[in-house]
Amino acid sequence: MPRRPVAVFAIAPWAFDGVFPADLLTRLRELADIDPATTFTSLDGQPEALAEADILLSGWGCPRIDAGVLAAAPRLRAVVHAAGTVKALVDPVVFERGVIVSSAAEANAVPVADYTMAMLVLGAKQAFSRAKRYAAAVEGTPRDWLSGEGTGLHDCTVGVIGASRIGRLVLRRLRSYDVRVLLYDPYVTDAEASDLGVQQVSMDELCRRSDLVTVHAPALPETRHILDGRRLDLLPDGAVVVNTARGSLIDTEALTRACASGRISAVLDVTDPEPLPPGHPLFTLPNVMITPHLAGAQGRELRRLGEFAVAEVSRLLSGAPLLGRVEPEHLAYIA
Q1: Which residues belong to the active site?
Q2: Tell me, what's the pLDDT at 283?
């Protein structure tokens, strides 16, 4: 009788139930032997379960998968990551061993793109600064019913930095709005930009022309502070910067100065450092909205990651191509 494949979980307890609710565990049991009571976030003592594992179902809290893990898991065929990026999770030795790696980054990109669009709409309305002014109105004086002149997303120019997985979803969503879209991505050709329905421009031109800028590039040495002081100064007065990618893509000190002047606004789901130290001026500026890295899958959205992972396991075991497969040559360039 053929041996059934064994799948082992490496995911933090706080995320497990959301990512793998009962019905998804039932579907997994039809594909492989699993033990939902055994999940680990540390390799101390090299868990016995790894010795039989064919598939590692990883998620937030999974330890780095390196030579030590491979030594403890001699049968390992695949790592199926039920979360976003695997950049910091997977050591290159995993690929050298021939282990297949898949990520649910495609599924995690959906809520990030949705969050980005919400922030572009609200940012263009100056909703955050106007709400703070409204709340701070002195009792007995007229509330801040500003006319909103010069606000709103309609007829704006939106600059998108990076045609990444999330960036492309944002570009697709922007088609529903009456906006002009500029793109900076050195890896996208003019023909590809045309297919995406955007105009490919230089980074400086994007900054000069954009009413709103949204950042979707990976964190690489060459993208560090891609929005530095000089480029922030190129932005038109009243521009809004939205960052749901990585904090290091923006020079925090330069952004603080630009926002403190009141010339531009920012919506930041990521910062550099992350989190910002208590009392940082960005927290108190009325034209800056900071959220705690929540754009990705949260709460009910976690299920989408588990659905993707279970479907990947099914594809893996049936010999079908994996939709989230990560190739080793891409590891250095993903977010």
Answers
A1: 246, 274, 293
A2: 98
